[in-house]
Amino acid sequence: xxxxxxxxxxxxxxxxxxxxxxxxxxxxxxxxxxxxxxxxxxxxxxxxxxxxxxxxxxxxxxxxxxxxxxxxxxxxxxxxxxxxxxxxxxxxxxxxxxxxxxxxxxxxxxxxxxxxxxxxxxxxxxxxxxxxxxxxxxxxxxxxxxxxxxxxxxxxxxxxxxxxxxxxxxxxxxxxxxxxxxxxxxxxxxxxxxxxxxxxxxxxxxxxxxxxxxxxxxxxxxxxxxxxxxxxxxxxxxxxxxxxxxxxxxxxxxxxxxxxxxxxxxxxxxxxxxxxxxxxxxxxxxxxxxxxxxxxxxxxxxxxxxxxxxxxxxxxxxxxxxxx
Length: 324
Hints:
By secondary structure, this protein is an alpha+beta fold.
């Protein structure tokens, strides 16, 4: 646009060029003079346009914290001026890029939370430059830098960074604050069916609490998702050994028992922590040692004496059958 302005103002047919001919200014000074006039006109035109825009009065960020002038960004979107905190904008971008659908990465273009419209290239570039100037620590996130290298193109970003997106998706699926749903329990049961040893299957009762099950099997789910999404055979090998140890050290895990003191049915969810036996030297277990453990699951009734209460385990038919 500037070169068009410069060529039009300095053409031979333009009478305004008489100023340069009169004072015989050199070519570089002519260029600086035209450039100065151009930016003056652009600044004036921008001020006139901004007067017609509606300014959204917001003194707080999306978390209700008062905005700090140092980290406040003003973006023009849909003929309105919106105030954002640079930290909120980075959270919005990272959240949009790490979106997962049914356990698989599906990144989306970041959107304005006030009007639910996508940010364009100029707005995203302005956010990046502002963060690079006033908050460079926010750019240490690898996914932000990868999005910038892809020129804020969501398709190019997805094709180049599939592994990084899968790792972010796994971290979201096994986070401590995850709301446990039926789909999560399905993944746990699927993992137990596909990765457990044939002779030491881990079965779970229907009365088991979902949140407790997720907290117990969360480290195992991390390995299982790495095997599924990243095709990591090493993770599958560690997962199979860990589940075998879990079944051997906790043979009564997931069984229903009746508490005669409380006169209620409960589920035995006592187990060892994964770190307690992952560091143990693993040795190949012979078939003769697995045979008595295999027979234990087909016994009609098993009694377990506790110092405080008597636990009576139910037969195999009462055990929770796998869902998948």
